[in-house]
Design a protein that fits this description.
By secondary structure, the protein is an alpha+beta fold. It is globular and about 75 Å long. The two termini are 35 Å apart. The C terminus is likely disordered.
């Protein structure tokens, strides 16, 4: 426990077989087959695969030829990164509604520091459950989450009950949990380091603790001290925010195109309720700078219009109506998607900019 500080609460979220999950979401025929993304061509490698393929021993970074040898019925699809990026942005937007302290590690995983968040009774476990439900409902994929007092343990926890799992390590459980933890689970311990540790008779973090810091530093240098700290469940690294949430928006794609502008106006109240609900959930309230409306027509052409509206605290229909009037110039043009959003004023910008001459 950090003395004199609030006990950190960290959530690590990790999308389950992310690229494959997006493919299965968008094409139901892929849901019940062993699936690999990438690796179709002679020399291609598997980017990721679903759990059915993993049951045959297929792994990411494996040559496609070897994957097909292990799993003769393997179905392969080419990677579609624009689609994965769009799904990733949806997931990250949901995370950033809970807190601005989000550190994405890749398209499909991130750390959140929720120590100061008071929503969901201040319980990181309830927050993780809520995030998992929202991602499942709104993005159509599953995420696994780990909750722990630091980043290192949260990342281990999110992998503990994959796929579609939630695992919690409370501060009180840390000593017992790390005691039995195999050294292979420690970040930065690959085959080579694990082999060296095994040669010293070390299989678990408990063994590392018994060996002591001096021996580890002598054998492994700086990494030895890190191993010793991790073996005690200690990790002081903060969640590093790469960007502050700049906007919140809601959008709806309609299964049948809205026939005209009047139909658009009829769905605006629902969208606005949704938007204001999301704005009220944000733990850190920020001043609104702009409002925007987004329209995608039946021919897939997409148009966005935004206007500065500094004095708006909670957007109302009357605030969006002028934007809709200006954006939809042809009353009878069918609309496929409609979205509303706000952009925040970025008061921190000058502070966070890098200074050239420091």
């Amino acid at each position: 426990m950090n003395t004199g500080e609030t006990q950190r609460k960290i959530i690590h979220v990790d999308c389950d077989c992310f690229y494959a999950a997006v493919e299965m979401r968008d094409d139901p025929t892929l849901r019940d087959v062993p699936l690999a993304v990438g690796g179709a061509q002679g020399r291609g490698v598997v980017t990721t695969c679903n759990y059915r393929a993993r049951a045959f021993g297929v792994r990411s970074a494996m040559p496609g030829s070897e994957a097909r040898r292990l799993c003769p019925g393997l179905v392969t699809v080419p990677a579609d990164f624009p689609r994965y990026r769009a799904a990733s942005q949806q997931v990250m937007a949901i995370l950033r509604e809970l807190t601005d302290l989000v550190e994405p590690l890749s398209l499909d995983e991130a750390f959140l520091d929720v120590s100061e968040v008071t929503d969901h009774k201040g319980s990181a476990t309830l927050m993780a459950r809520y995030l998992r439900e929202r991602v499942k409902k709104e993005v159509g994929i599953t995420i696994s989450a780990g909750v722990a007092p630091n980043k290192f343990l949260a990342k281990i926890a999110s992998d503990w009950q994959k796929p579609d799992g939630l695992f919690v390590i409370t501060p009180e459980q840390v000593p017992d949990f790390v005691q039995a933890l195999p050294v292979e689970k420690l970040s930065g311990v690959g085959q080579v380091t694990a082999g060296k540790l095994h040669a010293l008779g070390i299989k678990t973090c408990g063994d590392i603790q018994a060996l002591g810091a001096e021996v580890l530093i002598e054998k492994f240098g700086k990494q030895g001290y890190r191993l010793y700290e991790m073996a005690h469940g200690r990790d002081e690294r903060p969640v590093v925010v790469s960007r502050i949430a700049k906007s919140v928006s809601v959008e709806r794609t309609f299964s049948r195109d809205l026939p005209d502008k009047t139909a658009c106006q009829s769905v605006m109240p629902d969208l606005l309720d949704d938007l204001n609900r999301r704005l009220s959930r944000k733990a850190q309230k920020k001043p609104i700078h702009k409002l925007f409306v987004k329209v995608r027509y039946s021919d897939f052409s997409t148009h966005t219009l935004e206007r500065v509206r500094e004095s708006v605290a909670e957007p109302a229909l009357a605030d969006y109506q002028p934007l809709l009037d200006e954006l939809i110039t042809r009353e009878d043009r069918p609309v496929r998607l409609l979205g509303l959003g706000v952009r925040f004023r970025n008061d921190e910008a000058p502070v966070t900019q890098l200074r050239l001459f420091d």
